[in-house]
Write a structure and sequence with these properties.
8% strand, alpha+beta, 5-stranded mixed sheet, 442 residues
Length: 442
């Protein structure tokens, strides 16, 4: 055993440097992935910078780049050649005609028809004289694309003179001894027409996108107007109704100066609250531009609901018996849910003052972890303690009035993913109930 251990030699370790990628392969893939991500980010940054520049500046810069590439090897000799005529050496004329095919690209979006005219004339003369190929001939394709993509008026009127001009160009090349045949000219013409059509397709998509944005803006404006109209209805109806009721009751309190003073103070307080809310709504209406839209969508300008206890006390001061009952632990509500609860109670109390004056009204608000339940019920002539005929789980739309009041409340609750019901009670009273989610609503 000892000799075996002494004579034995350790076996060589496997060579991982040859024939096996080892641990370098993952590192190589990671490097390629990072490089691709860096290139993608750089390209996005470059395109964003390019797209943010003024259109005229982009056209001038593009014309300058094409001009420079037309005289830089090895791109200088790459370009379109239609006639295959015998080559002719005229450096000065070749430079002038090349500039005539590149510099007019500075007008490709502002005056695309003029750009196409200048570029096509210089291109035609360049090809007819058999001058060497030049990268500047790419200007013809850009000019054709620009007419299809940017010409606002007379685009169809440009088709006929362009086709006639190309036909004349083909006749001239044939007369000068070009080996091209009719099928060759037809294929070239089809390629040029395809470039024009590509620009037209891009223009159509751009117009469709602009129309979609316009309609989206109109829909957003209509929705905002509807929301403001609902807010205006809630503010004016509630506060003006309360002021009318309080002022009507004032003549009957002349024998009690203290109560007259209280009534006048209540009218003054109601008017001040109405003015404050109306000033806010006027501020929203006066806000224009993107800032108003952003503030509206982000909720910074969303009206905040008031305290329900103050609302109930205000109703009591107008002579309407009202009682607020809160069940569960009172928790802060999200802006949308809190405003909806406040408006629901406000509108219901306004209707109670208008249609059931002097009848006790009970407001019950129940808080739970994921929703809040609101019920506003006023007693009927029988003064019975009858339950609501409706439940939020099975509302009867016929019970909701067609005005902005209850209909607007239903819209508010539906937008939050809640349930709404309103209907008469067995004793002749009326009940409004809603279940509004406070988490995960639509």
């Amino acid at each position: 055993m000892k000799s075996e251990n002494t004579d034995s030699t350790p076996s060589p370790e496997p060579d991982t440097t040859a024939g096996s990628p080892g641990p370098t392969a993952p590192r190589g893939l990671a490097f390629l992935s990072r490089a691709a991500a860096a290139c993608t980010g750089s390209w996005r940054t470059l395109t964003a910078w390019w797209g943010g520049r003024p259109r005229d500046a982009r056209d001038r810069e593009l014309a300058l780049v094409i001009t420079v590439l037309s005289f830089v090897e090895p791109l200088a000799g790459i370009g379109a050649q239609f006639g295959n005529l015998s080559p002719r050496h005229a450096p000065a004329l070749a430079i002038l005609l090349t500039l005539g095919q590149t510099l007019p690209l500075a007008l490709r979006t502002s005056r695309p028809a003029l750009c196409l005219l200048l570029v096509s004339l210089c291109f035609g003369v360049h090809q007819s004289l058999g001058l060497p190929q030049t990268f500047g001939s790419m200007g013809l394709y850009l000019a054709l694309y620009s007419v299809g993509a940017h010409a606002e008026r007379g685009r169809r009127l440009l088709i006929a003179p362009t086709v006639v001009g190309y036909a004349v160009f083909c006749v001239v090349l044939h007369a000068l001894g070009s080996p091209q045949q009719l099928p060759d000219y037809a294929v070239i013409g089809l390629v040029l027409a395809t470039v024009w059509a590509a620009g037209s397709v891009v223009r159509g998509r751009r117009a469709t996108e602009a129309e979609r944005r316009r309609l989206t803006a109109l829909a957003a404006t209509a929705a905002e107007r509807s929301r403001l109209a609902q807010e205006l209805h809630d503010v004016v109806t509630h506060h003006v109704t309360a002021m009318v009721v309080q002022s009507d009751a004032a003549p009957f309190l002349v024998t009690s100066p203290e109560r007259v003073t209280e009534a006048l103070a209540a009218i003054s307080g109601t008017g001040r609250r109405a003015l404050a809310e109306l000033r806010y709504l006027l501020g929203v209406l006066e806000a224009t531009g993107e800032s108003a839209s952003d503030e509206s969508t982000s909720g910074r300008r969303a009206p905040a609901g008031g305290d329900l206890r103050d609302l109930v006390n205000q109703t009591r001061m107008s002579g309407q018996p009202a009682e607020l009952v809160e069940k569960g632990e009172r928790v802060p509500l999200p802006a949308g849910a809190g405003l909806s609860v406040y408006r629901l109670v406000q509108e219901s109390l306004t209707n109670a003052v208008k249609y059931a004056p002097g009848r006790p009204t009970r407001i019950t608000v129940g808080y739970s972890g994921d929703h809040v339940e609101v019920e506003v019920a006023n007693e009927g002539p029988d003064r019975g303690d009858a339950p609501c005929d409706d439940s939020p789980a099975a509302p009867r739309p016929g019970h909701v009035s067609g005005g902005r009041g209850l209909g607007g409340l239903r819209t508010r609750v539906d937008m939050l993913g809640g349930e709404f019901a309103a209907g008469p009670r067995a004793d002749g009273g009326f009940c409004v109930r809603a279940r509004i989610p406070t988490r995960g609503g639509r």
